[in-house]
Amino acid sequence: MAKTESATIYKFSVPKGRANGDILQAILTLAVRETELIYGRAKLKLETDYKLATNRPVCLIEGGTECGEHLAKLMSGFLIKQYGENGFRVDRLPKGGRA
User: Fold this and answer.
1) How far apart are CA 42 and CA 98, in angstroms?
2) Is residue 97 classed exposed, middle or buried when 0-12, 13-18 and 19+ CB atoms within 10 A define those classes?
3) Can you tell me the distance from the alpha carbon of 83 to that of 17, in angstroms, rounded to the nearest whole number?
4) Is the pTM of this model over 0.70?
5) Contact 90, 39 (CB under 8 A)
6) pLDDT the model gives residue 6
7) Domain edges within the chain
8) What does pLDDT average to in each consecutive run of 10 residues of the chain (99 residues)?
């Protein structure tokens, strides 16, 4: 998943009782599309990575670059709008971290 040596992996998780996988997928898709509008498809592909877990409401986003940090900030902002400040959790994992 990691594309840079100094990458931080942001692990966004929503409690199972509050999360709907379709909503989390839609939020991630919106954040990716918005980031692509700003940085372009090639830069998005080169500078960051993201993954949505299939069996639980967890999303991983690789930071460490301007593009990756932008994507993580958008994801966080959209999750705040959807679930509130305390409705989700963000953990910072070192490069190679696990969900």
Assistant:
1) 26
2) middle
3) 12
4) yes
5) no
6) 63
7) 8-92
8) 65 84 91 98 96 91 96 98 94 72
Q: Residue 39 pairs with which residues in a beta bridge?
A: none
Cα dihedral 81, 70, 34, 11, rounded to 10, equals -60
| The pLDDT value given to residue 2 | 40
Cβ-based neighbours of 40, under 8 Å, separated by 6 or more: none
Beta carbons within 10 angstroms of residue 33's beta carbon: 11
Structure tokens at 86: 């305390």
* pLDDT tens, residue by residue, 29-52: 999 999 999 999 999 999 999 999
8-92 belongs to CATH 3.90.1170: yes
- Name residue, tokens 């305390």: 86
Cβ 68 vs Cβ 61: under 8 Å: yes
Strand, helix or coil at 39?
A: helix
Q: Provide the angle, in degrees to the nearest 10, between the axes of the packed helices 21-39 and 66-83.
A: 140
The predicted pLDDT at position 97 comes to 52
